[in-house]
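Checklist before submission:
- one chain only
- standard amino acids only
- sequence pasted in full

Submission:
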Amino acid sequence: MSSQLRVPTARLVSRMAAVICLLTLAGSASASMPARVRPLSDFTSTQGTTNIFIPPVPDFIGWGDNPPHQFASVDYAGLAAAWLVANGGPNLGTQVQGNVIERPLSDGRALVSVVLRTTGANSWVSPNPGDFANDPLQFGYRAQDILANSSLSPALSNCTLNVTFKNTAPGAPLPDLVNAFILGNTAPGQELRTLSFRSDGDGPLHAAFGVAEGTPGHLTVTETGLFMTGFHGATSDAFPVERVDLHPLGQ
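Returned file contents:
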C-alpha cells in the first residue's frame, strides 16, 4: 500500500471517493432486495485472527508509501489496545465506532460496506523496507513496548477506515481482512472491492527519524485502494493514493 502523491492530496482523495462510490453501486445490488444494517461487532469480532506480522499482537492492515520510505501502523480496529488490556497493560482509551451495511446481490452473494471511525488509536512508524516487528521506530511505540514500560507516552491517532467487499451470502460471517485478503485465505465468493484509510495523530519522534529523541511529531496517513479496475496507469498497483507523512509538530 504505497505510492507518493504528485498532486494535492485533498483533491485526489475527493475524486477517488467519488469513483469508489460509483464503482461500488453500479450494477451491484438488486433494487428488489433492500440493504440492511448489521451489528458493528459482526465485523470487529472477526478481525485479528492471526498474529504473524508483529507477534504476538493480532494482525491488522498497515500502510506504506511508494517509493518505500516509511511504514505506518494505526490501530484502527482497536486490536492492539485490546491486546494491551488483556495482558495487563494500560488502557489507551481507544474507541471504535462505525457501521456495517449489507446489500444482497442478484448472484446470491452480498456487498458489504464497513466504516470504522476510531479515536485514540495507537500509532507507530518504522523504516520501509525493513523489519517492522523489530527495527528502531521513527515515531510512537509498538504495543509490546508499552506493555513493557507503561510510563511511555504513546502516539495516538484518530482515523477512518472504509472497506467494501463481496461476501459469500447475506448474513454470512464477515472475513478477517488480513487473513482473507492479504494472506489469501478467502472463502469462495469473497472479493475485495475498495479500501480507503485516513488518519491524523501526534506523538513522540525518535532519533531514528533524525531529530532529538522525544521531539513532538505529527503523522498523517492517506490511502485509497481500488480493486475492481484494470490495474493500469495510476491504479496499476490498486492504490492510486498512498501517503505516509511524518514530520515534527508545527512544521
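Reviewer check: Confidence is low (pLDDT under 50) at residues 1-28, 229-236.
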